[in-house]
Amino acid sequence: MAVFLNNTAGFKIQTGGSTYVDLSDHVESITINRDFDELEVTAMGDTGHRFVKGLEASKISITFYNDDSTGSVLQTLQSVWGQSAAFKIVQVQSAGSATVSATNPLYSGLVLVNKTTDVNGAVGDIGKQQLTFTVNGSIAVATTGTW
User: What is d(CA 101, CA 95) in angstroms, rounded to the nearest whole number?
Assistant: First the structure.
C-alpha cells in the first residue's frame, strides 16, 4: 500500500487577469470534497432503485494562517471577495513549484469566494481561518499542465 506524508500541498488563487497568488505557505490543511447529485433512473420492473451521476456540487475546505501583508492571505482573498476565482491545487509541491503527473494531478476550477474570517483567535493563539469554498462549476483533474 502506497502512503505519503501530506505536508506539501500547494494552493494558488487567481486575483485578476492571469495572475495567480501562491498561498501554499499559509495553508495548514486543505481538503477537496468532490460530490455529485444522484439522479434516480428507476424504471418499471426494476427490483431496486437505480441512480446515475448528476451535476457536480463540490467544496474545498482550507485552513489558512492569517496574514495581512501585501499579496498574502487576507488581502488576496479580499481582492476577490464576492467573486468566482480560479484556483489550482496539487498534492506535492516543493519550493513553490510542482511537477504535474499521474501521481501528482493538478486540480483546477472556480470557487466562489464569499466568506472570510479576517479576525479569529484569543490571547496566545495563532490567527487562522477555516473556510469552505463552493466550487462554481466542476473540478478539472489533469495529469499534465503548469502549476
Answer: 17
- Residue identified by cell 510542482 is 98
SS3 state at 17: coil
pLDDT tens-digit readout, 99-125: 999 989 999 999 999 988 888 888 998
Instruction: Express each pLDDT in 18-51 by its tens digit.
Output: 899 999 999 999 999 999 999 999 999 999 999 9
Q: What are the angstrom distances between the C-alpha of 132 and each of 29, 77, 114, 119, 143?
A: 12, 13, 9, 16, 25
Rounded to 5°, angle at Cα 74 from 68 and 79: 125
* Residue 147 three-state SS: coil
The answer to pTM > 0.85 is: yes
CA distance 68 to 61: 20
Interatomic CA distance for residues 15 and 18, integer angstroms: 8
> Residue type at 61?
S
Query: Where do runs of H (alpha helix) occur along the chain?
Result: 73-79
